[in-house]
Amino acid sequence: MKIGKNRVEAFSDGVIAILITILVLEIHVPQGGNWSALEPLGPVFFSYVLSFIYLAIYWNNHHHMLHTLDKVNGSILWTNTHLLFWLSLVPFATGWMGENHFSSLPTALYGVILLMAAIAYWLLQRQIIASQGENSLLKRAIGPDLKGNISPVLYFVAIVASFWYRWLAISIYVFVAIMWLVPDRRIERALPH
Q1: Which domain, by its residues, includes 148?
Q2: Per residue in 68-116, pLDDT tens?
Q3: How many domains does the chain have?
Q4: CA angle at residue 65 from 89 to 189, to 5 degrees?
Q5: By Cβ atoms counted within 10 A, which residue in 57, 83, 130, 191 is the most buried?
Q6: How far is CA 175 from CA 22, 81, 90, 188, in A?
Q7: Which conformational region is residue 14 in: left (phi greater than 0), alpha (psi within -120 to 50 degrees), or beta?
Q8: DSSP conformational letter for 131
């Protein structure tokens, strides 16, 4: 039985949209009507922006990746659900990290979730490539995937660093996000026009 990719894409888009909405709901309205009332929200707002960017990056890349598919199998469905599971934990880790001003354990947990989401995304790529066979469009498009291979290593370094140099950990999370913000046109170029 051939399963279309449209339902997977719509479901994934919906989940990511809900996660982005949950992120903003974690920012509580301050008491007071002056600028100083906003000051305590600085870490919370920074974590929100960082996580919003990460979820947007995942949505964008996931969207492009699914365009390489013509059919979906059960393995792809479950691997996609695995990715969505890890992404669903981003609002919790974001809130915990921001509310506790980037203390070590919440900052490390944030990195663990980013690492697991990166691994889940990699597994989804592998499932799609396996389903497409030897001449996989996705495999040709991503090539050696330097950013995809270096990101988990950087997340691991940040997780460890969060216990001694938490600002280094935060800097690494920001660096990886910036690295992925640079538009990746590999899949767009590989798709037939």
Answers
A1: 5-190
A2: 888 899 999 999 999 999 999 999 999 999 999 999 999 999 999 999 9
A3: 1
A4: 140
A5: 83
A6: 24, 27, 18, 24
A7: alpha
A8: H
